[in-house]
Specification:
694 residues, alpha/beta, Serine Threonine Protein Phosphatase 5, Tetratricopeptide repeat, Rossmann fold, 4 domains, 7-stranded parallel β-sheet, 6-stranded parallel β-sheet, 30 helices, 8% strand, elongated
């Protein structure tokens, strides 16, 4: 019998030269003599794939594999054939089989990596990409893809390393510069991010997403005008780009550019009904603070965000053997304390810490073991030092990827994990999506629902979420008695500076608002101007969030017939200095649709009356809750007209303001709002209630 190797070489020669019919005839002659010949089956299968006959290739591969189970090219052929037929799972299985036999099959690794990536099997995808790069480190596309995955999973050092190598290997590929810029932005390397975004544009990637991202970097760099131009350019390229529109609207809010803002609001509300994709996603926090939006819209926005960002994460759920609600472990042989964990980036001199510090210290250590899981910066400030002492364990997650951070939390056997960030700046909700604790809670940092299936409870109170409104929140609502917001009795009460030192007139009525400028709306500002008109000589003292906002507010005041100099800017100060100056004001005027939260607590702590209006939604009712729990419900109006009338009444009657200050001073000693020990016990009762529901 003629040796098979000779015709096989002839067939391969014809195959490589495009003479497919001749090659096929010879392959079949070989298989007629040796039906299970692995190489002939493999090559005929490859020819079948070239001719668009994947089913035939599957038959050839499977027939040969039965007699040649250790031949790596046959499962590779099978994988390619299954992939061509759209049988993704079967293809992935076959690629794994081939690579188990021959781990250095580069093309098989590349195909497997692409399939896994498209199916969002990220952990295995990253492993495959690392295998590829061990064989071919210069493959820039793989470096780029791996870098993007590292970024999504929160491993920024690895992401930066991969993306920089991709750009180094292929410096003319615009997409690689774009992905490098994304990782730099996430890591806070703003100058490098700006350079990379601009390089992507210069290389021809003139896309809306580049302009949107560049706008975000410019804003963080303090180049607000440039940021506005970038965001407008993004919308010129793609008018349906809701993500960019929301970013532009929020920046306009911060600058109090209300005329331009008004046109975007209805379009953003419409976007909540658009098909869910990356370009139609809206930041939940930005929508939450947008005027003319509703709690139902806030919930829909949060649900869309959570599904898009976190649905692909496969949590490693390990149910902790949680203690019973009475603090006793169900298994009396292994009785232990209830393990509470607080997750935040703000364990330093930050509003959240200023409210919570004493609560951490007062937790009942006979029943609870309390841990901090911190992914924020090591600031070295006094509050950071205090908080390190306040917890039984202080765990730094800053350098950990999301999954690794979740594993650290899980290793501590946490029963209840309280997220103090929600969807605010620098949050890492992906850690919670990995479900590191059996009970997970949204509390304090975010005044609304997270719309996420991995958040079980939301802590509020009866005033903030009235009975009957639970359906507006995706979490189970647990209401604390009194106000949901804690307060720190150790907060300083520094002496007041002179009014002159603050740039204020000595004798005039001083209205103030130290809320961020994005909380000020045209309707609220018009009321403030009417108060200035009604109270001769009075002034409005406003936090100088940014220069543009102050300029625009003064122009708006002029339109209401108020001299610009009656608006006085208050620069940002250290917290103690800010507390001290609050005593120089007569009335704190609150905002809508987002109230003062910590800012209102600060004002009350320093004896400054706060006038608010409670309307729809969590964020619009916090100040009202604070005032009710302080024994000051008469400072809470139900309508804007009532709000204006109340503020005017107090402005015109100094003796009423004086009496209010006496009531506020008494509240520091006897009101539930400032009873930190009582609050802590009620908070612990809420945690026990959660355990009882399990």
């Amino acid at each position: 019998m003629m040796p098979i190797s000779d015709p096989l070489q002839r067939a391969l020669h014809h195959h490589q030269n495009g003479q497919l019919a001749t090659a096929e005839a010879i392959y079949r002659q070989i298989l007629a003599a040796a039906p299970h010949h692995p190489d002939a089956n493999y090559l005929l299968g490859r020819l079948a794939l070239q001719c668009g006959q994947p089913a035939q290739a599957v038959q050839l591969a499977q027939r040969a594999m039965a007699s040649n189970p250790l031949h790596p090219l046959l499962p590779w052929l099978l994988a390619d054939a299954e992939q061509q037929q759209g049988h993704t799972d079967a293809a992935i299985t076959a690629y794994r089989q081939a690579l188990a036999l021959k781990p250095d099959l580069l093309d098989a690794l590349l195909d497997l990596g692409n399939l896994l990536h498209s199916g969002r099997q990220d952990v295995e995808t990253m492993s495959v990409y690392r295998q590829i790069l061990a064989l071919q480190p210069q493959l820039a596309a793989v470096q780029n893809n791996l870098g993007s995955l590292y970024k999504e999973h929160g491993d920024l050092p690895a992401a930066l390393a991969c993306c920089r190598l991709a750009v180094q290997h292929e410096p003319t590929e615009a997409v690689f510069h774009f992905n490098l810029a994304n990782s730099c932005w996430e890591a806070g390397l703003l100058q490098e991010a700006e350079t990379a975004y601009r390089q992507a544009l210069q290389l021809g990637l003139n896309q809306a997403v580049i302009w949107y991202s560049l706008g975000g970097v410019q804003q963080q760099l303090g180049q607000a005008e440039e940021a506005l131009n970038c965001l407008r350019q993004a919308l010129q390229l793609d008018s349906g780009y809701a993500t960019a529109r929301m970013a532009l609207a929020h920046l306009l809010q911060q600058r109090c550019q209300w005329d331009e803002l008004a046109a975007h609001i209805p379009l953003l509300r419409q976007a909540l009904s658009a098909p869910l994709e990356e370009r139609t996603l809206i930041s939940p926090f930005s929508l939450l603070v947008l005027p003319d939006t509703t709690p139902a819209e806030h919930k829909r926005c949060a649900e869309r965000w959570a599904h898009s960002r976190y649905a692909a994460i496969q949590p490693n759920i390990i149910k902790t053997a949680a203690p019973a609600a009475n603090g006793q472990h169900p298994d009396q042989q292994s009785s232990r304390k209830i393990r509470i964990g607080y997750l935040s980036a703000d364990f330093h001199d930050h509003a959240t810490a200023q409210l919570m510090a004493e609560i951490f210290e007062l937790h009942d250590r006979s029943r609870f073991e309390v841990s901090a899981f911190s992914y924020g910066p090591e600031t070295g400030d006094t509050m950071r030092a205090r908080l390190r002492l306040a917890f039984d364990h202080f765990v730094d997650l800053q350098a950990d990827a999301h999954a690794a951070a979740a594993e650290k939390i899980r290793a501590h056997g946490i029963d209840i994990l309280i997220d103090l960030k929600g969807y605010t700046e620098h949050s890492r909700s992906a850690i919670l999506a990995h479900r590191p604790a059996p009970i997970q809670v949204n509390y304090l940092g975010y005044p609304g629902t997270m719309g996420a299936p991995f958040i079980d409870y939301l802590l509020a109170d009866d005033f903030i979420i009235p009975v009957g409104q639970d359906a507006l929140y995706s979490e189970q609502v647990i209401r604390l008695p009194g106000c949901y917001q804690p307060n720190d009795r150790q907060r300083l009460r520094p002496p007041a500076p002179t009014r002159a030192a603050c740039g204020l007139p000595d004798e005039a009525v001083v209205f103030c608002c130290f809320n961020h400028s994005y909380k000020i709306t045209p309707e609220i500002f018009a009321i403030w101007c009417s108060l200035l008109q009604a109270v001769p000589g009075s002034v409005l003292w406003l936090l100088q969030s940014n220069d543009a906002a102050m300029t625009n507010l003064r122009q708006a005041a002029s339109g209401h017939g108020i001299a610009a100099e009656r608006l006085i800017a208050a620069p940002k100060l250290a917290h103690a200095d800010h507390l001290a100056r609050l005593q120089c004001a007569d009335l704190f005027l609150d905002t809508l649709p987002v109230n003062a939260h910590t800012t209102a607590s600060d004002a009350l702590w320093m004896g400054l009356p706060v006038v608010t209006c409670a309307q729809q939604g969590f964020a619009a009712r916090v100040a009202g809750s604070l005032l009710h729990t302080s024994g000051l419900p008469d400072l809470v109006a139900d309508t804007l007209d009532g709000y204006r009338d109340l503020a005017l009444q107090l402005a015109q009657h100094p003796q009423q303001r004086s009496a209010l200050r006496d009531r506020i001073a008494a509240a520091r000693s006897n009101a539930p709002l400032f009873d930190s020990l009582h609050f802590t016990r009620k908070l612990e009762d809420a945690y026990l209630q959660m355990l009882a529901k399990q």
